[in-house]
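Quick start: what a row looks like.
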Amino acid sequence: MKKHMQALMGLAFAAVLALAGCNAGSGTGTDSGDATSGDTATEASYTLVQEGQLIVASDLDFPPLDSFENGVPSGFDVDLSNEIGARLGLEVVYLPPQNFDSIIPMIAQGGKADIGNSAFSITADRMKEIDFTVPYLDSNLGVAVKKGAEATTEDALNSADKTIAVQAGTTGEAWARENLPNATIVPLVTVTEAMAGLASGLYDAVVADLPVIAHQCTISFTDCEVCIEIPTGEQYGIVVSKDNPGLTAAINQVLADMEADGTMDELKQKWFGDAM
């Protein structure tokens, strides 16, 4: 799917990137139309909340994808946003950390942020409200428990006496509700909050994206471990308003360029240790 979409977008929006400096000055990027597909000239434009800026919404509490270190956004997704902004000639501005489940409604409504970039798994339900760029990262889900816990299987955790913490509005919550229907599911604002509750004994398990939950167990909550890896085959995409298809297409071209020139692999190696 990625290669197919990138190929479609590549010709149509090459000129958009060349005119990124103009985009930054006007708040609207426009390709006046040398790119063609057959006999049809293609014109593309995008709007921005603030001219010259790419405003990003994120929960900034999903390391190593995104975090808020000493008041500064950091992580793979942050580096990705910064690279996209640089290639479009735009200053990247992050909003203060947002609740994860508020970001898609914010982008759909418009007026506050241009994109949501916070490890969003591409799903059909989410695409009813917003558009996604092409995928930029593959992921699965994971289940974490305290080291030495007795309940470490799906069957053992699917019990009325088990409490499972998740981040609200995530695919981890959806999976837990579908596959652990007998357990009590507790939606929380952040994965860090869920992991802290697991470490203190408040919860029996946490379900979250595997790269994040593995990072948390390795770096921050070393008395916890991943007991189940769930091969969901998820893919992350950047969230854009359905009213701004030109911005989606322009970002798609940047993502294609980053894949082609090796920049994407460099970011994966920096944050995950290898090219995922």
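That is the whole record. The chain has eleven helices and 15 strands. The chain has two domains: 2-138+235-272, 140-233.
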